[in-house]
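Sequence only, no structure available. Ideas?
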Amino acid sequence: MLAIERLTVDIQNSRILRDVSLGVGAGELICLVGRNGAGKTTTFRTIMGYLKPVSGSIVFRNRSIVGMATHRIAQMGVGYAPEDSQVFGDLSVTENIELPTWTRPSDRDARTRIAVAYDIFPKLRQYGLRGGNQLSGGERKMVSIARALALDPQMLLLDEPFEGLSPAIIPSISEGIASIRRLGHAILMAESNVHHIPDYAESVYVLERGEIIYKGKPGERYPPDVMKIISGSA
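Reply:
I predicted one. Tokens follow.
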């Protein structure tokens, strides 16, 4: 579904990604793991068209999306929940979640798409009229993921869905992601904490200083040098 080959990205004359290659198949959950600053968000922003690569290819559903406008990539079926959530503070929870149904046509009607989003995070039903700037960090994460899901995407990019959350809210986010996976959506998830990687993920890619240094399966014994990096002890 998504194939990235030898992706190289510079930001302000600094090389951030170096020959990054990874793939996400239909219905798969793939985890991109790395420390803060390793290049995870840059990878996601490049997929979404916010950044233009120096070289390399990004192919989604057999079509190159390099150089394509962000809204066109979203219309093709890529939903994005960024690390900082980017919930619209002046809109209510209901309006935030409904927004993608106004901008992307789909075979499913808006009511169905919105209902699916609320089924994933039922807690949000009671916050429908609450403004985006009145939400906690965990609630904003839920709204951000629910909004991306209401796009009716074939694939979701989830950037650090557990970052900065209290231990009390993490199970709700984790259960929501598992439910999205059961619906058949492909998911590429960035994570800095190896302990948040779901055991049902197909593959784990470890990113360090802009390079993929390891690919394996969840639960495998990582090489000592890789474990130092992803455990934060290096």
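The longest strand covers residues 14-24.
Hope that gets you unstuck.
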